[in-house]
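Subject: for your reference before the review

Hello V.,

The reviewers asked for a structural picture of the protein, and I figured it would be easier to keep everything in one thread rather than splitting it across files. Below is the amino acid sequence we used in the manuscript, unchanged from the supplementary table.
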Amino acid sequence: MPRYDFDLLTIGAGSGGVAGSRRAGSYGARVAICEQGRVGGTCVLRGCVPKKLLVYGAQFSDAFEDAAGFGWSVAPPAFDWPRLIAAKNKELDRLEGVYRTLLKNANVALIEGRAVVVDPHTVEVNGRRYTADNIMIATGGHPTTPELPGIEHVISSNEALDLPQLPRRIVIVGGGYIAVEFAGIFRGFGAEVVEIIRREELLYGFDDDVRVALAQEMRNRGIEIHTRCQVARIEKFPHGYSVFTTHGQEISADLVMYATGRKPNTAGLGLAEIGVALNAEGAIEVDAWQRTTVPNIYAVGDVTDRLNLTPVAIAEARAIAETLCNDNPIKMDHDDVPTAVFSNPPIGAVGLTEEAARRQFGEVDVYLARFRPMKNTLSGREERTVMKLIVEPRSDRVVGCHMLGPDAPEIIQGLAIAIKCGATKKQFDQTVGIHPSAAEEFVTMRDKLVRPTKLAAE
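And here is what came back from the structure prediction:
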């Protein structure tokens, strides 16, 4: 008789938890997954998927505007926000059904309810206890807001995805990818958008040339960005809200959204009580094998607060399944992970930024291209694309690719394979471009950018 009820018990049915559980189940392991909410997690229900659907919807405003330059006569379009939200919700319902079916087909038992870890091999859900040889924590994270007067009046990205009506004027606080993506979404649908950030530029951690260029394009679209600014308090009035800044400004809005950070969902799970180490922010500390300080308990995804990206969580969880259930030990490789920001225009990036490359290698070669996409020549749009390559000169290896412009995420995904394989600038140069395309610029850049010496690593 088996010592435990399950070989693997996963807490959290988001993308990582589902992927790892399915993979383990496919190898014949006895697997269960616990979920207190809907199956699908942040990405499917409150993040990547619904946000991308809204991004698609917002882009039609550009398409209608650009059509005239290509000979189309388009009647003034009308937009119905509740209709879009209903369509989005219908798609999320479909996806949740798909996820439930995938778990069932992989022979993964779904246990619905809040799970608490009682000891290294026992989890309690709704008063019933289940035992497992190994436990995987995949509970993700949640939006956080700072303590300040009036903070109870704000919404997070969760609520922004389900608003009953489109606000006429919205203040978004934050300069990260969630903030800039929603700024583009609301502006695309016609709302007035004010973004407040405490730093000098948006998207801290991304390449400077790209983040500066994005801010300029957002301002060109009518988004008002207040830099080096913080909120002092928020007040509610009959007409809406007023945001008072530390600069002494009062900004009126129908809605105030905060996108200033997220924290791991570890509270109340019982982890610290059984010896699982958490950092000061509540994130689970893991080793290269995703193991916690309790050897048979593993953690993946946002709950570890490292690279908080859905494909990373999926890869980490599948590595655990391979290691534990398929006699195929795998460590997740966190180097050169590509990422995207679905801003308007979007960003794609893989590898090191120029600043990070200079810190690591000293001198680097930089290739930078700025141009007006072919489509914009007839549409009349002034928006520019930015492409950038970072090269380590001694090895000639390309260590960073960055792009701002239409289809940037799609283009960077392909280049990520080249970066992962250690491609050199010479190999980029030897690659024939697809013409006419924006992507060909990455294999035709020849002139090095000369930077002031002050940017060199000290």
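For the response letter, the relevant points are probably these. Residues 340 and 447 are 26 Å apart (CA to CA). Residues 454-458 have pLDDT under 50 and may be disordered.

Happy to draft the paragraph if you're swamped.

O.
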